[in-house]
Automatic annotation (TrEMBL):
Pathway: Amino-acid biosynthesis; L-cysteine biosynthesis; L-cysteine from L-serine: step 1/2
Source domain of life: Bacteria
Gene name tied to this protein: cysE
EC numbers, comma separated: 2.3.1.30
Name listed for the protein in its UniProt record: Serine acetyltransferase
């Protein structure tokens, strides 16, 4: 028997799983049928669904859903990396957030995920020189989700922002891949200085709730920042910092803090520091 040829370009396990979960959710809760169809099942690709969700959540009296949908569709068509990063972000949330039990939850219900995807469209606009439209997207994301990310900031993939209330990420901030942060995190400046003035967060970093990382400093890969800390100086790779101002209190405790999500400081590792 001849083998069936498969077009690898059409294989999308993340989107397939989301649609399967949507059908299961529809069977369990028929009253959500309209929302599940409009947001997910009506769309042929994840990119089209993300563009629809983007337009629905950010539309206002100043900008219609139709215009925003066209902008997002254009962005996803022009830059396939946006879709790839959106999928990596969903997998990250599912893997790291114990409250996430299905792939469809972030795209439908989690404002941290939705805000990051909207930022990505705004960042694409910024790179195209469409600065005013990018600022408009930033404003609407802040108003709709309570998250303020400058469109010029550079953010990697596999990002998980848990709860995601009161997140601030400044203009020259850089966030690496596979970073996790909790609510009320600020990646900000230290005053009125211009130029490169915001933190650079390495891959695999875990940033606890309420932490403030200020200034043009580097946070080394696979490090941990304890909740409530104020970080004003560089942090070495694979270390844990805590306090106001923050200081190194021990090792990170594992190879990938952002994946393990362990925020408990080990008294043994902090002894003698």
């Amino acid at each position: 028997m001849a083998k069936t040829r498969v077009n690898v370009a059409t294989v999308d396990p993340v989107w397939t799983r989301i649609c399967d979960e949507a059908r299961d959710a529809l069977a369990e809760e028929p009253l959500l049928g309209g929302m599940l169809h409009y947001n997910l099942l009506h769309h042929a690709t994840m990119e089209r669904a993300l563009a629809y969700r983007f337009s629905l959540k950010l539309a206002s009296g100043e900008m219609s859903e139709q215009i925003l949908r066209e902008i997002a569709d254009e962005a996803y068509a022009a830059d396939p990396e946006l879709g790839r990063r959106a999928r990596a972000d969903i997998v990250a949330v599912y893997d790291r957030d114990p409250a996430c039990h299905r792939f469809l939850q972030p795209i439908l219900y989690f404002k941290g995920y939705q805000a990051i995807q909207a930022y990505r469209v705004g960042h694409w606009l910024w790179t195209q020189g469409r600065r005013d439209m990018a600022f408009f997207i930033q404003m609407r994301v802040s108003e709709a989700f309570g998250i303020d990310i400058h469109p010029a900031a550079r953010i990697g993939q596999g990002i998980m922002i848990d709860h995601a209330h009161a997140i601030v990420i400044g203009e020259t901030a850089v966030v690496g891949d596979n970073v996790s942060m909790l609510h009320s995190v600020t990646l900000g400046g230290t005053g009125k200085e211009d130029g490169d003035r915001h933190p650079k967060i390495g891959d695999g970093v875990l940033i606890g709730a309420g932490a403030k990382v200020l200034g043009n400093i580097h946070i080394g890969e696979n490090s941990r920042i304890a909740a409530g800390s104020v970080v004003l100086h560089d942090v070495p790779c694979c270390k844990t910092v805590a306090g106001v101002p923050a200081r190194v209190v021990g090792d990170a405790g594992c190879d990938q803090p952002s994946v393990k999500m362990d925020q408990i400081l080990d008294p043994d590792c902090c002894a003698g520091e």
